[in-house]
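User: Hi! I have a protein structure encoded as tokens and I'd like to know what sequence might fold into it. I'm fairly new to this, so please keep things simple.
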């Protein structure tokens, strides 16, 4: 008897077939997305996320939130302490500087300036660095060597020195600060994206796409970019804190955004000489900068854990769902011509296996 008759003979005669296990009604697409959204919201860090959202909201509606005009000078109310200190008043919750300007209003507008500089620098540097990183990683050869040596040269120069040179020759301004940060950031994006492209370029589905006749721009757009996008998003979130710190350092040295525009770095510099009798002039903007940078870094770490498949597997977390479902997974990439080529290979294997005899029991 063959192996198929032995299996049937083992079953008792006249026995009723076992009842199939009851399967619950599958969730609809909308319910799955809602459940995934709840799961993502439950796992995100509460305090860093709240501070990040609050900082973005304050920067967006700064003109409506300021209690006083930030540039209004009132020498009579100069160096008033905060409301929680003896002698303070709730008219100026965080006190005033030596010119009588409200500290809270200037901190609120400083939040807008810092986030605007970080967003502009990361957008410009990220776009240029991503394009050059893809070009260097995919083309290779002398193009790769030229772009990487240029990136090494830009990373070798200290950003503070470049900003001081541009401030002396052109003059300190918002454009100069964004340009300096973008000149440093593009090299970081280019090196990271190049490494990712070199890794994914050697995978089998890229080779199959080339065999199927796909051209370079199609491979980059449909296969490489979705797999590198997660890394770019994580790098953008992690560089926001760095950009805020560098902008504050440049403003502290006088090479950043000039007055009367309030920035956190310039506010700290104004209160250095008065730290003994009016500590709140430097401490309040410094504390705001420290809190925002720390929460952005923690939020970026969570985004990295959420989008990195290796860390998700290590920490036992599921992938992004709900609003983050549009972000591609690194294990994907078999689309278009690649999937057709893999389907051809799979069907050939099935046809080959069909000619092999089935093993029989002794």
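Assistant: Happy to help. Inverse folding works backwards from shape to sequence: for each of the 362 positions I chose a residue that suits the local structure. Here it is:
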């Amino acid at each position: 008897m063959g192996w198929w008759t032995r299996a049937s003979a083992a079953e008792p005669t006249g026995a009723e077939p076992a009842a199939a296990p009851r399967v619950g009604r599958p969730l609809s697409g909308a319910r799955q997305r809602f459940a995934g959204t709840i799961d993502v919201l439950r796992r995100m860090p509460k305090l860093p996320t709240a501070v990040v959202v609050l900082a973005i909201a304050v920067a967006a509606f700064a003109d409506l939130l300021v209690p006083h005009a930030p540039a209004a000078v009132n020498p009579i109310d100069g160096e008033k302490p905060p409301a929680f200190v003896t002698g303070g008043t709730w008219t100026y919750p965080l006190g005033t500087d030596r010119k009588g300007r409200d500290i809270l209003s200037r901190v609120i507008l400083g939040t807008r300036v810092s986030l605007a500089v970080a967003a502009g620098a990361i957008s410009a540097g990220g776009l240029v660095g991503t394009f050059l990183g893809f070009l260097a990683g995919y083309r290779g050869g002398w193009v790769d060597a030229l772009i990487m040596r240029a990136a090494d040269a830009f990373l070798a120069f200290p950003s503070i020195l470049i900003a001081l040179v541009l401030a002396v020759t052109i003059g300190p301004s918002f454009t100069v600060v964004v340009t300096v940060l973008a000149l440093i950031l593009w090299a970081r994006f280019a090196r990271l994206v190049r490494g990712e492209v070199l890794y994914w370029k050697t995978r089998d589905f890229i080779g199959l796409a080339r065999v199927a006749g796909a051209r370079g721009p199609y491979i980059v757009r449909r296969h490489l970019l979705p797999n590198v996008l997660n890394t770019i998003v994580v790098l953008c979130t992690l560089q926001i804190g760095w950009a805020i710190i560098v902008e504050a350092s440049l403003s502290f040295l006088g090479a950043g955004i000039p007055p009367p525009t309030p920035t956190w770095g310039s506010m700290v510099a104004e209160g250095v000489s008065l730290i003994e009798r009016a500590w709140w002039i430097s401490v309040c903007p410094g504390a705001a900068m420290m809190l925002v940078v720390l929460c952005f870094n923690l939020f970026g770490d969570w985004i990295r854990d959420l989008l990195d498949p290796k860390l998700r597997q290590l920490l036992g977390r599921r992938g992004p769902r709900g609003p983050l479902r549009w972000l591609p997974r690194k294990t994907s990439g078999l689309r278009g011509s690649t999937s057709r080529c893999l389907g051809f290979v799979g069907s050939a294997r099935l046809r080959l296996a069909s000619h092999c005899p089935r093993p029989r029991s002794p």
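A useful reference point when you look it over: The domain at 43-346 is CATH 1.10.3720.10 (MetI-like fold). Feel free to ask if any position seems puzzling.
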